[in-house]
Amino acid sequence: DQYRSIMKYLFTLIFTTLFSFQALAADLTNSDVSLWLKAMPTLQPWLDTHEDELSSHISNTEDPEVIFKETIGALKKSGLYKELNAKVQSLGFTSAEQWGEVSQRITFSWLALEIDANKAQIDAAKAQYDAMMNNPDIPDAQKQMMKEMMGSGFIMTKLAEKASVSDKAIIKKRQAELRAFFEREE
What we know:
Blueprint: H1 2-14, H2 30-55, H3 64-77, H4 81-90, H5 96-117, H6 119-133, H7 140-160, H8 165-173, H9 175-185
Helix pairs in contact: 5-7, 5-8, 6-7
């Protein structure tokens, strides 16, 4: 399931995304995207290797907003911050924070475009989810399971809606290239 694979990748990426959307500064550039695409084949295996270590320092790995807030602390508590910072600097970024900002903006702008392209299916899934959650005949245990399975995806959709118009315009030009990257990561 492509959506689930993308979600797994996004949660891995979130562990190193260091800023909330409201704090982000200048618009993405085409150079940012090129640098990121060049760096990720090196960084992704490192992220995958350290995912468990990082997640052990996050209080709720099912809630992307909690992950955002606790990432810097998780990197420091796990002793991985300096290593990640050195890696991203060797790949052309100024710091782990800058790489995290670029990663977040690229990922959520790309996701926003994908969501826009699949809006009818996502809206239908949300409607089914809401109907199930409001159905008194469905046992609470089944609702809880569904909530755990789908809830994070809906939160991610809301976060993706915060992508700026200018960031989405840059990503749209590179959408096919980014889709190929994300599909390889599945």
